[in-house]
TrEMBL record:
Similarity field: Belongs to the TfdA dioxygenase family.
Pfam families: TauD
GO cellular component, one term: cytoplasm
Keywords, sorted A to Z: Dioxygenase, Iron, Metal-binding, Oxidoreductase
Record GO terms (molecular function): 2-oxoglutarate-dependent dioxygenase activity; metal ion binding
Name under which the protein is recorded: Taurine dioxygenase
Iron recorded as keyword: yes
Keyword match Endoplasmic reticulum: no
Domain TauD/TfdA-like: 4-270
InterPro entries (alphabetical): AtsK-like, TauD-like_sf, TauD/TfdA-like
Amino acid sequence: MIKEYEPLGPHFGAVVHGADLATATDDEIAEIRAALVERKVLFFRDQTLDDDAQVTLGRRIGELTASHPVVGGVDEAHPEVYALDSTDNGFADVWHTDVTFMRRPPLGSVLRAVTLPPAGGDTNWADSQLAYESLSEPVKHLADKLTAVHDGTREFGYYLAQRRGGQGNEWDGEVVTRLDPVEHPVVRVHPETGRKGIFVNPGFTSHITGVSEFESRAILDLLYAHLTKPEHIVRHRWRPGDVAMWDNRSTAHYANRDYGDARRVMHRITLRGDVPRGPVG
């Protein structure tokens, strides 16, 4: 079994010691999968994964998606691997939860460092459940009733139209040819734990439905500011061989863009998720 989980906060994040992701047993994979739900983001040092091994690992944890609804895989042999390369605009310097602009966003993600800058390029994760639970009761009651629109057009519409000729990848059994906005609850109930979490993000959430533009902006600004309070965040300083794994249903993340012209390359896979559900009643 895994030797040690080093907590990064009272309830959020952990560095996993004694795990070799390339040779982990079925029992260890099951343990990691359970820890992922509990701690939300896990970090593994000194791993030896390549693209093949990363895909194999992902398939042992869950069902893999395509690399991205719109962006192709790193190469023809690895259509599941999404390359974030700073020399090709591969940045993630806005708070976001992966691919919430689709009806079924990914359950989780596995990210490994390929090329790191000499300094900088840290990634931050926010605990959306802790953030929800620390809201005041009146704001919780308001948020519980709200629905938001998520739209990937701003970030990926041009890429789909110009670089892919309007032909994206297969996602949930259909080839993506357009990025129609989708609606998700502002508060998501985790399907495995039943815990509530804030499920809006500056990267892809465009507005709250059923309210004025002014009210929408004010509500979203309040939730974003609360979600990203320092006490809700863990920050990871990358080293060669590092792998991060997070639960997309209970986190948001942000990659620091503070390394100038140095190159940063990360490879990510995502696990197929379900349709987000809000509070009952």
